[in-house]
Amino acid sequence: MVSSVRILVVEDEPKVAKAVREGLERESYTVTVCHTGEDGFFLLSTETFDLVVLDVMLPGRSGIEILETLRRQGSQLPVLLLTARDTVEDRVAGLDAGADDYLVKPFAFAELLARIRALLRRAKTEIVGTLRLVDLEMDVLSRTVKRGGAPIDLTAREFELLEYLLRHQGEAVSRDMLVRDVWKEPLRPTPLDNVIDVHMVRLRRKVDEGFETKLVHTLRGVGFTLRAETA
Ligand code: CA
Questions:
Q1: Which of 61, 63, 75, 143 could bridge to 70 as Cys pair (CB 3.0-4.6 Å)?
Q2: DSSP bridge partners of 218
Q3: How far is the CA of 14 from the centre of ligand 1 (A)?
Q4: What would the pLDDT profile of 55-110 be if each residue is shown by its tens digit?
Q5: SS3 state at 176
Q6: 205 C-alpha to center of ligand 1: Å?
């Protein structure tokens, strides 16, 4: 059985990358591997993952830089950092940048697996309750949304749409994903693109109008993303 859990591994040492890929695939995770910080960052901004295993020392953009950018954009994607050095400074830098966990090389594969399982479990339990991005707050149980403390009135569909974007904040969300997961009509004879775009325009107006920091963004040729950006 192929797992729907998608893991991105950003690691420039071919041997380590290969071992991690093979090990994770044996556990039925869906694994994408890349070898530079640039590629890692590109994949994170264009595809959806459930967890990232991120090497700190990478050619080009470092793991810490990637992590800082992700968190600044509001992504809550679980990130497990890999480092070659075990120093207090490294640990502090990683955790300050928003890492969820930390593993020093060389590590036992069983330990990597255990940490990944723990992070995925934690991410799952955080699914209920309140979803947040900067000053935007959604209470999933009472189905209320506020921005800067002021209530936002949403239709049922707009609420579902925003909830989906909040759960995937900082990630690229395609129209296909919205058709499948929000509209739940993947087999509709006519495309829903126009319907989706109209809803996104309305949602953007309700969420962003009057605020300097914009949260709802169109990614040309890709879809949409929810992240904090000051114009
Ligand atoms: Ca490295």
A1: 75
A2: 224
A3: 10
A4: 999 988 999 999 999 888 878 899 999 988 777 788 888 888 889 998 999 999 99
A5: helix
A6: 43
